[in-house]
Write a structure and sequence with these properties.
165 residues, 4-stranded antiparallel beta sheet
């Protein structure tokens, strides 16, 4: 009886504390909480995930991190590493193609989070299913030479699929 119930309460002490902190933050800063449509989107995302995905360490890390800022659509980390959505189909650094302009190495610069799909409120969301988009840019910050057309340099984008299990 009481030993099992106190052990059960102890098992959820961290979650209870997080919920309490969230409620305090929501009361102090209502603009920082999810509105009804954002909460709905978050719940739909959570419903999609299977038991297998919940075992994936990359997925767990991703969900823990985005719980802090669920409205986040971009994550910037120049020369950092992507926060992968899954352990599957991660882009190995050796497969990042060199800059098409100068031949130099490309580095991770930012990622577009799946939250953006919901915020765009598109009619055909099914055509935009991805876990995240990683953008790799030229480490040399090169620019096109004069007379070569547009001043922008083509960068590399890798889309990690959403449905990997």
């Amino acid at each position: 009886g009481s030993k099992a119930s106190s052990s059960k309460e102890g098992a959820f002490a961290h979650e209870t504390e997080l919920a309490k902190k969230y409620e305090e933050e929501a009361a102090a800063n209502p603009d920082n909480t999810l509105d009804e449509s954002e909460q709905e989107a978050w719940e739909k995302i959570a419903e999609k995930f299977t038991h297998e995905q919940l075992k994936d360490p990359a997925y767990k890390a991703f969900m823990q991190r985005i719980k802090k800022e669920p409205q986040q659509v971009l994550r910037y980390a120049y020369e950092g590493k992507p926060l992968w959505f899954s352990s599957q189909q991660q882009l190995p650094p050796t497969e990042i193609p060199p800059c098409e302009n100068c031949g130099g190495a490309r580095v991770f610069e930012f990622q577009v989070m799946p939250t953006l799909i919901h915020l765009l409120k598109l009619d055909e969301v099914s055509k935009m299913e991805w876990g995240l988009l990683c953008v790799y840019t030229c480490k040399n910050h090169c620019e096109r030479k004069e007379g070569e057309g547009c001043a922008y340099v083509k960068e590399y984008v890798y889309a990690q699929p959403e449905n990997l299990v």
